[in-house]
Specification:
Number of domains: 1
Largest sheet: 7 strands, mixed
CATH architecture: 3-Layer(aba) Sandwich
CATH class: Alpha Beta
Shape: globular
Number of helices: 4
Helix content: 10-25%
Order of helices and strands: EHEHEEHHEEE
Strand content: 25-35%
Number of strands: 7
CATH topology: Rossmann fold
Radius of gyration: 14 Å
Distance between the termini: 9 Å
CATH superfamily: P-loop containing nucleotide triphosphate hydrolases
């Protein structure tokens, strides 16, 4: 599925819709360059799970957990991970295979430990179509 988003609010709403449809043990791999709107998408996703607290990127902590929604939400940003073995120290298996929903930014850096079945969301800019334009591709649903 390919969606065109023309403003941040539309990116947020797509994230919200996917959050509303998420099931326990779902893993979403969120890909895109810096500044494409991954945080906006993630904030919408969290809203779809019923999370009301502020959501931002866990760039320096690797993972943030939110428990106030209808399912636990594990938000990973593995951009700064040095070695995939660091994921063992974090206890990623409890997140990936538990009762919550996991969203991973920069998931390609840990591809060898991802389950076979994930939902991949890729966000791309195209400045020829406007500053706020995003092409969002969702695969694996």
């Amino acid at each position: 599925m390919v969606i065109e988003s023309w403003k941040p609010e539309e990116t947020f709403e797509l994230g919200k819709k996917l959050g509303e449809e998420a099931h326990p043990s779902s893993i979403f791999c969120l890909n895109g360059d810096l500044g494409v709107g991954k945080t906006v998408f993630t904030q919408g996703f969290a809203a779809g799970l019923g999370i009301t607290e502020p959501v931002d990127s866990p760039t320096f902590t690797i993972v943030k957990q939110y428990d106030d929604g209808r399912l636990p939400f594990y938000h990973f940003d593995v951009y700064r991970i040095g070695d995939v073995s660091e994921m063992d120290e974090i206890g990623y298996e409890d997140c990936f295979y538990g009762e919550g929903v996991t969203l991973i930014e920069w998931s390609g850096l840990i591809s060898e430990i991802l389950p076979e079945r994930v939902i991949t969301v890729t966000i791309e800019k195209d400045l020829n179509k406007g500053f706020d334009y995003r092409k969002i591709t969702v695969e694996g649903m």
